[in-house]
Fold:
Amino acid sequence: MSRYSGIWPVAPTPFHEDGTLDLEGMKRVLDCLIDQGADGICVLANFSEQFLISDAEREVLACVSVEYIAGRVPVIVTISHYATQIAVERARFARDLGADIVMMMPPYHGALLKGTPEQSFEQFAAVGEVGIPIMVQDAPLSGVDLPVPLLVRMAREIEAVKLFKIECPRAANKIRALIEQGGDAIEAPFDGEEAITLLADLDAGATGSMTSGMIVDQIRPVITLHRSGDITGATAAYGRVAMAINHENRQCGWQSCKAAMVEGGVIRSEFCRHPIPPLHPAIRSRLIDLLQPLDPLVLRWGT
Structure:
């Protein structure tokens, strides 16, 4: 098994009701994720609302997270940027801070500025020179196509490229092809998308999953059972949480984790910065109704 395996949730970014960063809440979020059994934690990702956070706030959050976790689990710091120079600078900052891994999408900005396959390769290669392991995030949000041969080339020619978060449509097919074509160069294929396709992705060879931080302790058994060869047990464990995952993926997005953490006393506010609207009360209520029978730690962590 790869040392990069298990469940590595994305940490949400808590805000006060006035929209300022809640740094004490951030520490509680990190403790809660570790107590749920996270094998690693990712900060500043899309589910951390990275597109609603200033550059100065990114540095503060990265510092607080890495320093507070203090080696209890590995930390991934997201560094995506359209400009290669800035992505490199962010990677150096994360490395010098003591982060274990950086995660990045290919270069894109909006709907029309997208890196070509060669430009994407060049950006990852430039960040690779920094000397910190890289997780390639293959996410629909970027709109950039990362075909399997390109990912295999990155894995073989860029020493730092060791991990892959595959969350495109039909992720299992891509994970399977990536492993078949890349062999030993594909050290850690992960899935994402709140684990909405986790079973199929594990069947395809995924070594881990980057979920939200909502029910880490409930999803983790799916991965550990599957890894031990208990496919029946893994299937049953996944069936138990599937409705909650579906509701999160299709109705709530990253706000589901915040709602659950407020409900369980982890953080005080589920505020999201404009233009993100709050969850509809009926959607939020349904989420909590789906979570309560699971008795996840998040709903009782701070109570």
User: Anything to note?
Assistant: The chain has a mean pLDDT of 97. The beta strands are 6-7, 41-43, 75-78, 101-104, 108-109, 113-114, 134-138, 161-166, 188-191, 208-209. Residues 231-252 form the longest helix (22 residues). The chain has eleven helices and ten strands.
